[in-house]
Specification:
This is Putative efflux pump membrane fusion protein. It comes from Proteus mirabilis. The protein is mainly β. The protein contains one helix and five strands, in the order βββαββ. It is 4% helix and 44% strand. A five-stranded antiparallel beta sheet has the order 1-4-3-2-5, with no helix packed on it. Strand 2 and strand 3 form a beta hairpin. The chain is globular, with a radius of gyration of 14 Å. The two termini are 26 Å apart.
């Protein structure tokens, strides 16, 4: 199973292929799923109408694909998840 997620430009440098991430669902906030980043889009998926300030530039998002390594029946297609980057060693 894989998850499509979007990250802002200020986190783009952390999104490295094969980096481990934790995925949290609203129904299992205390027990994360584990996954690895498999793809990072080279281009922004959304561009704001006007990019005039640094705050507006953070509205640029990039699509990433995360391969879930321990999916179970509780993780369903279309379910929203929150991603957190695992610490790097």
């Amino acid at each position: 199973m894989w998850v499509r997620a979007y990250i802002s430009e200020n986190h783009l440098g952390e999104a490295i292929p094969n980096r481990e991430v934790y995925l949290y669902t609203d129904s299992r906030k205390d027990k994360p799923y584990h996954g690895t980043i498999g793809f990072v889009s080279p281009t922004a998926e959304f561009t704001p109408k006007s990019v005039e300030t640094p705050e507006l530039r953070t509205d640029l998002v990039y699509r990433i694909r995360v391969v879930v390594t321990d999916a179970d029946d509780a993780l369903r297609q279309g379910m929203p998840v929150t991603l957190k980057f695992a610490p790097t060693h």
